[in-house]
């Protein structure tokens, strides 16, 4: 790893471990940070919760810029090994899905579903809403830390000034979840696939192109414009996303194609 201007602290400089262990440690550190932030923030609700969360994220960014001996300041950490590949990405995706599915089917998951449907009724039934919400926040922080470790070893750098580590990445994740379906695990995966496909397909619109024999210049930001419109349309047409709270199952896929076959046979 390459450090510029200021050397790192001895603790960071002399710390060497394998990629899997480092990734898990990143998840645990993020989970601890989520606990520290979530303990006061989750006592708020509505707009106040969103504002406080964004405020803490900005505080962390400023700390990363100023802790020169640990983060190398605005220059960041360069030269990270390029460990992240398709196998690590798909492997962690599989682990995440299995964990979340098992979590939802557990008693803790059922308590979370009750809180999602009606937090007041859930609390009246004896469910500790704050404790369950905080624990879910910590779990989310753990997997966010895993994602950050994978992403950093894909970019081979960690820089607080990189916009993809800023709010824009949060919006990307939000679009994926809302597009696929709020409350649907498989819907979130499908939403991420659709989002990734559109991001690559719409890349051509940010390059000079010809349409009906007329030359058009490159339009920077066109991808985000189209995705934002898609996000708004999805919220209007499907308030809970494409899948809503339903899950993608083999039975559902078979029934879908059966309905298409029945429609075609009826038209004939």
Automatic annotation (TrEMBL):
One term of GO molecular function: branched-chain amino acid transmembrane transporter activity
Q: What is its main location?
A: membrane
Q: How does it sit in the membrane?
A: Multi-pass membrane protein
Identify the keywords attached in UniProt to this record, alphabetized. Cell membrane, Membrane, Transmembrane, Transmembrane helix
Q: Name one GO cellular component term.
A: plasma membrane
Parts of the chain that traverse the membrane: 19-41, 48-67, 87-108, 129-151, 171-199, 220-238
Per UniProt, subcellular location reads as:
Cell membrane
Question: Carries keyword Transmembrane helix?
Answer: yes
Pfam families this protein is in?
BPD_transp_2
- InterPro entries reported for this sequence: ABC_transp_permease (IPR001851), LivM-like (IPR043428)
Q: Which PANTHER family match?
A: HIGH-AFFINITY BRANCHED-CHAIN AMINO ACID TRANSPORT PROTEIN BRAE (PTHR30482:SF10), HIGH-AFFINITY BRANCHED-CHAIN AMINO ACID TRANSPORT SYSTEM PERMEASE (PTHR30482)
- Please report the name of this protein according to its UniProt entry: Branched-chain amino acid ABC transporter permease
